[in-house]
Amino acid sequence: MSLRNTYTSYGWLAKGFHWVVFLGFVALYGIGFYMGTLPVGPDLFAKIGLHKSIGIIVLALAVFRLVWRFINPSPDLPEGMKWYERLGAHGVHIALYGAMLIMPISGWAMSNAANFPVSVFGWFTLPNMIEPSKAAVENLKAFHGTMAWVVLGVIVLHVAAALKHHFINKDNVFSRMMPFSKEDA
């Protein structure tokens, strides 16, 4: 498997970014929804800390992923795709890249507004992005929560499109992002 993308498949680094960030989002959603069921207490604060740490790791990976994307373009889309499918594919990818940046940044800002530091697994603490503000906490909490649902919808759309390509179109769009796909040979 190649480090770099080819015209027909993603390289191992792009695939690694894709799947590690996906697993990060799965963890963030799982922890985030679970936090909503917990009473205020040590368990909730531990889960919030874990959620923040994973969110910042996703943010860092997103930055590296974007840099890699700009210096290593994606494989070509299938020639038979209609213009609106191409537009949709690009729009969903832009939304996903935006989510990888906006969600962690809004969480970081929300913590700062609540006067809580953002520590990444206790290894280091990020600088404060904004001053403490109850109004900002409420606005950022609403934004972060709403965006979580919007992003989840975009992820579902992304997965549905990939499955459509695999099972209906029978092209390589789905398989070229899978680890160890036949395009890697």
UniProtKB/TrEMBL annotation:
<dbReference type="InterPro" id="IPR016174">
    <property type="entry name" value="Di-haem_cyt_TM"/>
</dbReference>
<feature type="domain" description="Cytochrome b561 bacterial/Ni-hydrogenase">
    <location>
        <begin position="10"/>
        <end position="179"/>
    </location>
</feature>
<feature type="transmembrane region" description="Helical">
    <location>
        <begin position="48"/>
        <end position="68"/>
    </location>
</feature>
<keyword id="KW-0472">Membrane</keyword>
<dbReference type="InterPro" id="IPR011577">
    <property type="entry name" value="Cyt_b561_bac/Ni-Hgenase"/>
</dbReference>
<dbReference type="GO" id="GO:0022904">
    <property type="term" value="P:respiratory electron transport chain"/>
</dbReference>
<keyword id="KW-1133">Transmembrane helix</keyword>
<comment type="similarity">
    <text>Belongs to the cytochrome b561 family.</text>
</comment>
<keyword id="KW-0249">Electron transport</keyword>
<keyword id="KW-0812">Transmembrane</keyword>
<dbReference type="GO" id="GO:0020037">
    <property type="term" value="F:heme binding"/>
</dbReference>
<feature type="transmembrane region" description="Helical">
    <location>
        <begin position="147"/>
        <end position="168"/>
    </location>
</feature>
<feature type="transmembrane region" description="Helical">
    <location>
        <begin position="12"/>
        <end position="36"/>
    </location>
</feature>
<dbReference type="GO" id="GO:0046872">
    <property type="term" value="F:metal ion binding"/>
</dbReference>
<dbReference type="Pfam" id="PF01292">
    <property type="entry name" value="Ni_hydr_CYTB"/>
</dbReference>
<keyword id="KW-0349">Heme</keyword>
<keyword id="KW-0813">Transport</keyword>
<protein>
    <submittedName>
        <fullName>Cytochrome B561</fullName>
    </submittedName>
</protein>
<keyword id="KW-1003">Cell membrane</keyword>
<feature type="transmembrane region" description="Helical">
    <location>
        <begin position="89"/>
        <end position="110"/>
    </location>
</feature>
<keyword id="KW-0408">Iron</keyword>
<dbReference type="GO" id="GO:0009055">
    <property type="term" value="F:electron transfer activity"/>
</dbReference>
<keyword id="KW-0479">Metal-binding</keyword>
<dbReference type="InterPro" id="IPR052168">
    <property type="entry name" value="Cytochrome_b561_oxidase"/>
</dbReference>
<dbReference type="GO" id="GO:0005886">
    <property type="term" value="C:plasma membrane"/>
</dbReference>
